[in-house]
Amino acid sequence: MEKWKTLKSEYLHHSPFGNIRKDRCELPNGLVIDDYVVNEFSDWVNAVVITKEKQIVLVEQYRYAGGEFFLEVPAGKREAGETHEEGLIREVREETGYMSLQKPIFLGEFMVNPATQNNKVISYLIVDAFKQYDQKLDDTEEIRVQLVDFEEFGDVLMRQELPVQLFTAHAYLLAKNYLAKRFENNEHSF
């Protein structure tokens, strides 16, 4: 297989949230697509945050496009000059007030939707978290922090009791798998 060739690119829209780009592409078989639209977004970071009491720290907030209140792991995008890890720690602190003395554990980096988007979500696990700060929310944010037993949250996901964002379910399953492997290797604590 061969990659597609970009013959031309033009921007249809620029905004602080992302850009929309229209490309003219040539496929390996010679077919040309005149209007392949790509959404350019910043990479996102998220974290499964688990307290010393084995509760997952979740944020509930209204998501306009989804038209519902969603239960999510803390997430956001990096600010200028931040590493993924620094951006993650800042987002967790701002959205929840939680922190940990442990270094975040990298769980993985995944393309969001490589058919039409160019960004990734980078997931981490934070263990032994504790409440240290007040929330520091943007003017557009209204977030309620919820603590749920880590193991029970898996049942909530499976029963689809609440609207949950895909990246939350994905990060939770990555964290659960990581912790199960640690337990198998006789590392019995989070």
From TrEMBL:
It comes from the Bacteria. Residues 28-177 form the Nudix hydrolase domain. GO terms for molecular function: hydrolase activity. Its cofactor is Mg(2+). Gene3D superfamilies: Nucleoside Triphosphate Pyrophosphohydrolase (3.90.79.10). CDD domains: NUDIX_ADPRase_Nudt5_UGPPase_Nudt14. Transmembrane segments: none annotated. GO terms for biological process: nucleoside phosphate metabolic process; ribose phosphate metabolic process. GO terms for cellular component: cytosol. This is ADP-ribose pyrophosphatase. It comes from Bacillus infantis NRRL B-14911. The lineage of its organism: Bacteria, Bacillati, Bacillota, Bacilli, Bacillales.
